[in-house]
Amino acid sequence: MKTFNFKGLMAPVFTPYKNRCETPNIDAIEPYVEMLKSYDVKGVLVNGTSGEGMLLNTEERMLLAEAWQRACKKHEITVMVQIGGAPHPDVVQLAQHASQLDVDAVLCLPELYFKPKTPEKLVAYLEGIAKHCPTIPFFYYHIPMFTDVNVHMPTFLDIAEKKISNFRGIKYTSGNLDEGSACLKEGRTIFLGADTILCGAVAAGFDSFIMTTINICPEVAFQIINYMNQGEIKAARDKQLQLNTIIADILKDGGGEWVSAMKKAFRGKFLSIEVGQTRPPLNM
To answer: What family does the database annotate (predicted)?
Structure first.
């Protein structure tokens, strides 16, 4: 079993495209990794929400996982691959592929059509996937605003840790900080996925973060975290307000759709990294 002791910032990377989004732009990946490393970002999440994982076919997702793994291994960056959000046989294939690549961790969405309604059913679904990558640290992707899977995370975690041998934690993308805080426990890794509550999450004890704005302005997240850890609460609040203003401006300029707007902001800041547009239906 691989160990996983990640703390800090992990970027949920955008999928780079060329040819009007018809083809992944593999050539953009290493410069992307180099840019993130220059900002001291320690990891990447591949094929997540920001990476349009659910708009990619299985072959593309595997190709991208391979390319990110090569570049990140070269530059000593942690790689987590999101394998869910597809028909069950494809999720199994993606889990097996991630295991063969020996990535640092996998992240998995719930079943999106036959949605699990209880913690027990969610654990059963994930248990059936995790057995196909048994040596890779396994995480659940909790993002109820997209999945509409609203099971109680503290209860789910208690069950999952008993049932899934390689289970290590969750990516918690929700504004419910009370529930998120209740998930924190020694030995678990709980990634915060909600940019706008970073200040409060650090105060609650979060120390691992996967947020879209890490791609665009990681320095602001670092400042919030550092100010909070130093007890400079007012400075941290001011930086959180700055981050929330940046987000509001990005969404306004990008038409309000999160992924397309954020990718547009990234293109505008990092002109040398060709990531292209977002795929339909995001760009419609």
So the answer is: Belongs to the DapA family. NanA subfamily.
250 is in an annotated binding site: no
> What are the structure tokens assigned to 256, written together?
């309000």
In DSSP terms, 142 is beta-bridged to 172
**213-241 pLDDT, tens digit each:** 999 999 999 999 999 999 999 999 999 99
| Domains of the chain and any CATH numbers | 8-218+259-269 (3.20.20.70)
Convert the pLDDT of each residue in 28-73 to its tens digit: 999 999 999 999 999 999 999 999 999 999 999 999 999 999 999 9
Is 0.90 topped by the overall pTM? yes
